[in-house]
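Morning. Coffee machine broken again, so started the prediction first thing and wrote up yesterday's gels while waiting. Chain of 356 residues, entered below exactly as on the submission form.
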Amino acid sequence: MLRTLRIENFRCFQAFELQQLGQLNLLVGTNNSGKTSILEAVQLLNSQSNLESLREVMIGRGEYILNDESPGGSELDIRHLFYGHEINLSSNFSILSDNYNNKEGITVSVEHTNPVSLFENLREFVLVIRWLGQENENVKLPLSSKEGLPLDYVRRVRRDFKNSAAKTQFVTSSSLTTEKMIELFDRVVLTPEEYLVTEALQIIEPSLERIASVGSETYRSTTSRSGFVVRLSNGDQRIPIGSMGDGIWRMLGLTLAIVNARNGVLLVDEIDTGLHFSAMSNMWRLIWKTAKRLNVQVFATTHNSDCWTSLAAIASTESPSEEGITIQRIEKGKPNSIVFTERQVVIAAERGIEVR
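Came back before lunch.
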């Protein structure tokens, strides 16, 4: 479990640190303060054996360029990963953390393909990725003439560690794709975690008795809310999950993500999306209970006052501890987050103190 997170020259952060991290951490702050970038930093730190997560994040942000000379015709515009949105031979960023057992970290730098011929062709750059403690496992990815990273190179990077990277699940503000949800659901069918999925959906619809995947290729490739059917206690009809509203879909994504992140990390952007305030306390209760049982560290963001006050209600029922629940307020331009521990979160909610 991460206890601290230090970020340098990544995205909007020249230098930033999160401290006193707990098992469940809610990030709050104004728009464009860097909350989502922190989730991406944790994802990059923990997804060491697979850079597909980097590709997905950048494409989701529209950070790619077209280049007919590249395989597939598209490249990641890596400039936007670096502070200031530009790169040169001195560009680098790092993401470092402390946990209970050791230090973890990743550094990414732009270097010349052949330092001896530095002045012969200044455009021959490579992106060099180094993992702390794995100095002999560096990855070098050549950049194109447009200083982009061809998508094919990202897909080829697969690294085997003696100690494999933690399982990381990232739920965006628009939830998971249908294909991803079906994949995660198939992993928990006929396991104890399947009951957790049903329990989570009953937060939104108490009459829901069962959910099943209709995992055909047609549903896997669609972008709509489909691929699942549910049965209610007052009838035998199979009801498409898309008929049940946004809240059901959001809860399904959250629950499938956390039960598939055992001994790893759950990252959720705008966790309250699609949820009525009356459902938030039960949502937090399920997330907290599952995180403790499956040893999952949770990082989530919100702008919603109901969201953090609902979390305070959960914190009030727990014994305050250094390893429990924190709210981390991110303020643009500040080098550290403002930390609210369990006890402070409860006091702030009771006294009507705004922590966002």
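Residues 116-122, 160-165 have pLDDT under 50 and may be disordered. Going to sketch it on the whiteboard this afternoon.
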